Structure formats: structure tokens, C-alpha cells
Amino acid sequence: VQLSDLVITDACYGSNATVTFALKISTELRSPEISVEATVMGTPMPCTFGTVGSCTYDLCQGTSPAEKILSKPWNSSCPIAPNNYTYEISFFIRTLLQFFIQGDKINLTARVNDEGQNVGCSQFAIELRQKKLLD
């Protein structure tokens, strides 16, 4: 499993951000889950609201909003056929988060496991900015 073409736009507190990326699945996945570890200044962030921070997502039978979005290309059913999947996900970054995130850079590690086997890993950083006010 490979993540590529990651683009994040409008990553500002108090704004709608958009994330686009491609996910290449090269072998059939039977029971995959993705574990995201989010750290700020070396400290892991807890999983908040089941969607923000260090969370694990079921890619076949997940019921949370994030799991439904991630598994939408294969209608949340497994096994997942090898294919290239593209995503465009928009979400609101609450201003309140800046009080919980010390520093503006979040380091993310996403690990995909299928039936207990690691089948992919990607690392990237997101830099959150303050929303610019118009003069």
C-alpha cells in the first residue's frame, strides 16, 4: 500500500482544509486497518472524537465518519481489490485546537496492517497556520 500525491490546502485554524492524495493498493486486502500516530514536538496526541490525533481506523467495517470516508471507494466492504484510489477530503479545523496543539507542526505516521501484517507506512508533516484576517 502506497500513499502518494499528498496535497494539503488551507491548513489554517478556523478554516476548511482540503486534503487530496492517491492510495495504491497492489495486493488484495482482507481485513485492513490504518493506524495514525500524530505527534507534536515529540509528544503523541491522543485520539479525540475518534477522528483527531493518534487513531486506528477499520477500513472494512468502520462506523465512524472518518472510517466511512476512508473506505468509501470500496463501499466499506472487503476484500479490497488492488487498484489506485484517489481522495479529496475537506474538513474544518477548529480554532479551539490551537490551545491543545503546542507548536504548529504535526508529524503523522500512517501504518496500514492487514491481518496483522504491515503492508504500508507513510510519514508526513502538517503545518497549521493562523488564519489571516482581512485589513
Automatic annotation (TrEMBL):
Q: Which domain of life is it from?
A: Eukaryota
What's an example of a GO molecular-function annotation for this chain?
A: lipid transporter activity
For this UniProt record, give its keywords in alphabetical order, as a comma-separated list.
Signal
Write out the GO biological process terms: ganglioside catabolic process
Q: What is this protein called?
A: Putative lipocalin-8 8 lipocalin
Among the entry's GO cellular component annotations, what is one?
A: cytoplasmic side of plasma membrane
Q: Does the keyword Signal apply?
A: yes
Supply the source organism for this entry: Ixodes ricinus (Common tick)
Give the PANTHER family listed for this entry: GANGLIOSIDE GM2 ACTIVATOR (PTHR17357:SF0), GM2 GANGLIOSIDE ACTIVATOR PROTEIN (PTHR17357)
Biological classification of the source: Eukaryota, Metazoa, Ecdysozoa, Arthropoda, Chelicerata
Question: In its keyword annotation, does this UniProt entry include Ubl conjugation?
Answer: no
